[in-house]
Amino acid sequence: MKLEVDIECPGCKRKLKTKVENMRPRQKMRCLSCNSEIRFSGDDGRKAQRAIDDFEKTLKKIFK
Fold first, then answer.
1. What whole-number distance in Å separates Cα of residue 46 and Cα of residue 21?
2. What is this structure's pTM?
């Protein structure tokens, strides 16, 4: 399961969707409405996605 989150554009305040796994340091995304750039700096997105993936694997093992 790939978790998606809403991020608010700093320029126009629109909600942008992105996958948590894409929120890695030095990654960026652009708002298609106002062309503002959002840069990700921490590793929280990747850690959260890894935890979700591990949890999903555990559930599959339990319910096999």
1. 5
2. 0.60
Residue owning tokens 């555990």: 58
* Identity of residue 32: L
| DSSP-based three-state secondary structure for 32 | coil
* Cα–Cα distance for residue pair 18/55, rounded to 1 Å: 21
Cα diameter, the chain: 48
What parts of the chain have a pLDDT lower than 50?
Answer: none
Rounded distance between C-alpha atoms, residue 10 and residue 33, angstroms = 12
Query: E strands of 1-64, at which residues?
Result: 4-8, 15-19, 28-30, 37-39
Nearest of 2, 34, 42 to residue 18 by alpha carbon: 2
